[in-house]
Amino acid sequence: MKMNNTLRAVLIASTSMVWGGAVTAQEADFETSCALVNGVLPANCTQDNASEVVVVPAGENNELDRGNAAVGGDGFLISIDGKPVIGDKRVEDEIRKTDIALSNADVQVKFDGLGAVPRLDLVAVDQTEAFEAGDVVTFRSRTNYPAYLSRGEVRMVDIGNAAGPKTLAVVPVQPNGSVSVTIPEGRDVVAIHRVYDARGRYNETEPLSLQGSDDRGLFAQAEEGTDATRVRGIPVSGGAITVYGKGVRSGATVQTLGENVKPDADGSFVVQRILPAGERDVEVRISGAGEDIYLQRSVEIPRSEWFGVATVDLTFGYREDAGKNAAGGAVDKYYDRGRLAFYVKGKTQKGWNITASADTGEDELSEIFRNLDKKDPRHLLLRLDSEKAYPVYGDDSTIVEDAPTSGKFYFKAEREGNFALWGNYKGQVNGSHFLRNERTLYGFQGHVQTQATTSKGEPRAELDLYAAQPDTLPGRDVFRGTGGSVYFLQRQDLSIGSETIAIEIRDPDTGRVTSREVLVYGRDYDINYLQGVITLTRPLTGATGGGTVITDPLGENTVQLTVNYEFTPTAGTIDGYAYGGRAQFWATDNLRFGATGLVEQTDIADQTAYGADMRYEISDTTFLELEYARTEGPGFGSSYSSDGGLIVTNTNAVGGTGEAYMARGQVDLKDLNPDLNGQLGAYYEKRRAGFSTLDYQTTVDEELWGVYGEYAPTERLSYRLYYDDFTDDAGKVAREGGLEVTYKVSKRLTYDFGIEHIDKVTPAGAADETGKRTDVAVRATITVNPKLEYSVFGQATVSRSGGLARNHRVGAGVKYQFAQNWTFEGEISDGSRGVGALALLSYDNGKDGTAYFGYTLDPGRSYNGVDLSGKDRGQFVVGGTRRLSQAVDVYAENTYDLFGQHRSLTSTYGINYARSEFLRYSASVEVGRVDDSANGDFDRTALSFGVRYENQTGVTGTARLEYRRDRGVYNNTSRDGDTIALVSTLRYKIDEEQRLLFSFDGSYTDTDGSSIPDGRYAELTLGYAYRPIENDRLNVLLKYTYLHDLYGQEVDGTNDPGPRQKSHVLSLDASYDLNRNWTLGGKLGGRWSQSSPDATTAFQDNDAWLVVANARYHLTHKWDVLVEGRALRAEQAGVTEYGILGAAYRHIGNNYKVGVGYNFGKFSDDLTDLTYDDKGMFINLIAKF
Fold first, then answer.
1. Do the Cβ atoms of 701 and 685 come closer than 8 Å?
2. Model-level pTM?
3. What's the 3-state SS for 275-307?
4. Burial class (CB in 10 A: 0-12, 13-18, 19+), 636
5. What is the CATH T-level fold of the domain 120-301, as seen in this structure?
6. Where is the signal peptide (predicted)?
7. 189-196 and 208-209: which strand pairing?
8. In angstroms, rounded to a whole number, what is the distance separating the alpha carbons of residues 1141 and 1122?
9. 563-584 per-position pLDDT tens digit
10. Partner of 467 for a Cys bridge, out of 174, 579, 763, 810, CB 3.0 to 4.6 A?
11. What is the pLDDT of residues 724-736, one digit of tens each?
12. Where along the chain do its domains lie?
């Protein structure tokens, strides 16, 4: 039996209260006339519940009544707009008079206790182009919580420093203040804003690049509400006071909340500050340009504030006849069912912020509290059962997911950086070199940290824990940089928000990760979750680094894009658990110990990993790190592509048990002696066979170590030395060491000298990959002016043995900013290994346009999964972005790779077009093509088109069409596939009383089923709501749904497909108020359906009609009575059932109801209820809070 839907609607409606404007004559004339006659109420103006006294609790007022006079002898006061009307005229409502003054001045003061979001940002006020060393730039701090801060600073950091990020300068700045900074010398200098509280804890922003424009600086005096916080260590509570206004005269200034605010061009302003709990006086002063306004509002920011809703619905019943279930079997005569649901959000007086929600769903009482932690994807984002909900209710309500959970329960409690959570989350176990967790999971997550901090603001001790039961699998795709910005993932239909994307620099010989930078969505990349396409905001090269002696003309370190994400497999089930955590503590201000443990028992993975680490640091660039890690069992594999995802090589996870050791240390000579300029460092790693992590799959024992150093005794002279040694049990050896000297003859001329020795043994490689070689090189660099620099270089092999080829090479390079915004960088060389070339022509006007053209030719290049056949002619990249007008933005990129007979072309084109302020279009095309006579040809086309429309008359519409087509054969395997998807929604506000909604979701897939299911799906929904405002006697809800599902939707949260169906469902609900107490209602429902349990069974008809008519009696705070008649027609069975239901409810106070009813029919009013067990008596208990 299911809960009667009509009865449920009655109960919900009868406990609702709406406060509106004036009562209309039609409303007042329902039963009695209460219109004033000569200022006197008529004698018959009485109601049935006139003698009923009900106390309705009212919420607290944050406004202070300080200074108000006591109420006089009349005992009451009624005032309108602050002016007394009836009562003691000595009493004046000063607060209301302030409201009127604020309104007349077009200024508003708002308090928000639960929705305050701390913000921190840094802007370059006068930045229009890229800055260079020696330039002076003015930075402005922006934050909305200065009351919690004691100081701030701007940190200039060189993130391009070879030995790791290095802090070059720290300049103090007051929160919300400004400071001018001279840009120091560095390879890639960025600005970071850090603020501290009185206990030394700090928050920090994302790095602000100084290589491009920052349009936020154009209005640096305005409160824009931007947030760039990367590190949050300062607890911020209290409440947010927001002051905003408009129409301020040009030239006038606003003073409020301790700030001077400059309105924007149209005279509008907004400023928000988060303030601690307590009594506050908010002053607003507008002066200058003929303005002279001063207003004050007194408010109290509470220490504790709560918001919550809850409902308890219990039903106990007796079936008069032995009921039947859907299969015709007997069911028990006695039954009980119930549902508990609540949502609560608030903060305690001790500073705990609590968010919690639960919904048990309707079930037997013995079952509703069981499996509260059970994962149920239907609860995600409050997805409503389509058979129980209307697509539009006419009240313009929206859903905000404040308690994200894939189950029945969500809870989060946080205070001063500590929190405990049950729900959906993203793993944050990091801090170890070898082990980390970045998965998006459902379950428990907790973080505990001490309030005591080190002198650098780090918590003395931290503990992170998580435990989950995943129903998705992690994917990991690795791409070698192509010089372009578009990369195709191996899988489609990814879990939204689950990705972690990073750029890694690796040693190509040892696989050692030398640096890793996590990218930020929206700033660094965009992603199409359905198509599985990553688009970077900047092209990514495939190699970087190198010294004076050239081993690889394009760069000696490999640049890789790593993408971790979650996806749902198209076949099979996922069982198991994932749990782990990390603990770390600072024994002193310089010494940290940590331990990490991870367990993964999901799908093919059955791995336990744990480790311990230690770090001793004097500064960011002087430190010692030790780490041990061990893995037992296989983890998850990964894929690799060197052409952006067209050709993919899969790597399975390594099984067995393995260990890894790491030691790394570095000394910045300035920390020993401020007069010394240089760094010394060393590292050691050992990885045993069977060691398996996200970054390493070790099949044989590996050992690597190295040393490096830089020293500049004078401004003109500097030295650099390095040595790396790698060996493994398979016999592979890779040793490389060298010494470089740089001497600046003058500001214009610089010489670099270098010598390098290489020793390689490659047992499984070609003969020319084993041997020894010593090379010497010299380079001369001439800086003509800040815009022009060129160099010439030459090198020769002075000693060689074995199969290694000689490495003679000569070449030249240039970097030239030949016009405003135009830069050319190029290098060409020739030598023993062939011609190498690199060219990049780029344009960036810092505002509305970029363009680039690049060419690379690497004589030693390799291609994953492809043997070179013919001559490698390099790779071309051309692309750019352009704002053609205020309405049109376009972008395009083409990457053309000529690797012998294997040739590939990757193209992307896109446009964003604002047709008007109401209508916007977006479109993109991604095309990939491989021509390979040896391995097979392959084509991929991905199209995307979107439109959004929203006008001022109430029409809002969105639509997106996606298409992907794969054709070809690679290594005798067909890769054909087609995917089409359309998602659209249209909302129409006919008038203030009527709403119309249309939506369509459809997909067509013809694939091998490895990445996305094969099938057809379409769902069309039409909804209408009539909800009058002034005369609300008649209310109408209408819904029509067409469902064409040939996939077979998942059932009970498993991956097993359910029945296929093609169905039309129509539902119409209406109610009409005869008077204040009596309402007539009705429902008309129809289902025309064909269903099939699987793809091998023919569809069968399953049609039904339902007609319901009811009468309801409602006496406020006393009684609810329902009498309802029903008729159900099952067409194919040729059966018509009739029924009558009656129920009466008594209100108990404001929150409770007790009802009793009887159903004379055997069926409910739900067309999806296939049981015939509803005849009998029931008792219903309801509580609402």
1. no
2. 0.75
3. ECCEEEEEEEEEEECCEEEEEEEEEEECCCEEE
4. buried
5. Immunoglobulin-like (2.60.40)
6. 1-25
7. antiparallel
8. 8
9. 998 887 765 567 778 999 999 9
10. 579
11. 999 999 999 999 9
12. 61-93, 120-301, 427-651+659-667+676-709+718-731
